[in-house]
């Protein structure tokens, strides 16, 4: 295996580990006023992967993050897992499409991803609970998604603007 490919896999593995740790640590932060709403810090890592790596690599990191974080929290194959998976899958798909069709900046893509993550979760809640009453929750979740999407987008843009000395390029 070439050194650059190995370095790529190591970097993706580190990004996955960071996303899992952020996801896990976030479970200890109380909800921000709306039950079940979290900051979505792991999505910063997913955004970086979408911009810096191939789509299948970013998708792999995203799906592995959902599976491994839920295994770690003891919620694998629970309702929480399916809600997390549906939110992650829908937001990833929409972020990818908007990113490549419209060439939007990470801040905008982050807001789009956060809102579609919430929509994916609401869809699963509608299916599981079989009540349209859950739709009353949607405006509050969307507002929280826009706010957290903006915050995560700002952090993502700042991280992506950091210039790292890449001495390994010349090796």
Topology summary:
Elements: H1 3-26, H2 42-52, H3 55-73, H4 79-102, H5 106-129, H6 138-160
Structure description:
With 171 residues, the protein is mainly α. It has one domain: Arp2/3 complex 21 kDa subunit ARPC3 (Orthogonal Bundle), CATH 1.10.1760.20. 73% of the residues lie in helices and 0% in strands. It contains six helices and no strands. Helix 1 runs antiparallel to helix 2, helix 1 packs across helix 3 and helix 2 packs across helix 5. The relative contact order is 0.14. The C terminus is likely disordered.
Structural Rg:
17 Å
CATH topology: Arp2/3 complex 21 kDa subunit ARPC3
Count every helix, treating DSSP H or I runs of 4 or more residues as helices. Answer: 6
Largest sheet: none
Provide the domain count.
Answer: 1
State the low-pLDDT regions, or none.
165-171
Mean pLDDT: 88
* Distance between the first and last residues' Cα: 15 Å
Instruction: Count every beta strand, where a strand is a DSSP E run of 2 or more residues.
Output: 0
SSE order, one letter for each helix or strand: HHHHHH
Which CATH class?
Answer: Mainly Alpha
Content of β-strand: under 5%
Structural class: mainly alpha
């Amino acid at each position: 295996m070439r050194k650059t490919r190995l370095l790529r896999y190591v970097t993706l593995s580190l990004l996955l580990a960071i996303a899992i740790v952020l996801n896990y640590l976030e479970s200890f932060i109380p909800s921000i006023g709306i039950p079940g709403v979290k900051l979505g810090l792991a999505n910063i890592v997913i955004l970086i992967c979408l911009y810096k790596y191939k789509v299948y690599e970013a998708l792999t990191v995203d799906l592995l993050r959902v599976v491994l974080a839920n295994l770690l929290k003891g919620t694998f194959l629970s309702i929480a897992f399916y809600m997390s998976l549906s939110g992650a899958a829908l937001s990833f798909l929409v972020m990818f499409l908007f990113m490549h069709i419209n060439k939007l900046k990470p801040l905008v893509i982050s807001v789009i991803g956060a809102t579609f993550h919430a929509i994916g979760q609401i869809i699963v809640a509608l299916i599981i609970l079989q009540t349209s009453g859950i739709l009353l929750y949607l405006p509050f979740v969307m507002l929280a998604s826009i706010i957290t999407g903006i915050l995560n987008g700002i952090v993502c843009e700042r991280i992506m603007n950091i210039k790292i000395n890449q001495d390994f390029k010349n090796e």
